[in-house]
Design a protein that fits this description.
The protein has 147 residues and is mostly helical. It is 70% helix and 0% strand. Helix 1 packs antiparallel against helix 2.
């Protein structure tokens, strides 16, 4: 009941300010003020004010919000601990076992040698191509782009 009275008083005051603003021939501003002044009365008539005041003035609702806040803090704390490397016991054991085994595919980043050729069969000394062969590709690219 008190909330409805306050909203009605705020709307009446806003409409009074809108009337004074319209008297000063600032019709656009007066219309905007009147629109804002009608919002509290509209909220009272739709029942939103009664619903909000029912939530605000009940201690059980505030206890519920407090419990939700505590749960949220607990979730954040556990995530922070996991990110710092704490994790669970199983995760720590799995990480330690993976570090002892080494890389899964140590030659995965090595370039492909072709089908059927083993790395040991590759000759140790490569024949260096002539200097003119190296630069012929580069010259062709530069000529193609007009440089």
């Amino acid at each position: 009941m008190l909330a409805e009275t306050v909203c009605s008083a705020v709307s009446a005051a806003g409409l009074g300010i809108a009337a004074v603003t319209a008297y000063r021939r600032r019709f656009l501003a007066a219309t905007r003020i009147a629109a804002y002044a009608l919002v509290p009365v509209g909220l009272v008539m739709t029942g939103v004010v009664a619903w909000v005041s029912g939530i605000v003035f009940k201690p059980s609702v505030w206890l519920g919000f407090g419990l939700l806040g505590v749960a949220w803090l607990l979730f954040l704390t556990t995530r922070a601990v996991e990110r710092r490397g704490g994790g669970t016991r199983k995760e720590r054991k799995a990480a330690a076992a993976g570090a002892q085994r080494g890389a899964v595919a140590p030659t995965a980043s090595a370039p492909s040698l072709g089908a059927g050729r083993a790395p040991a069969a590759q000759p140790t000394a490569r024949a260096e191509p002539a200097a003119s062969e190296d630069f012929s590709d580069i010259e062709a690219i530069l000529k193609k782009h007009g440089i």
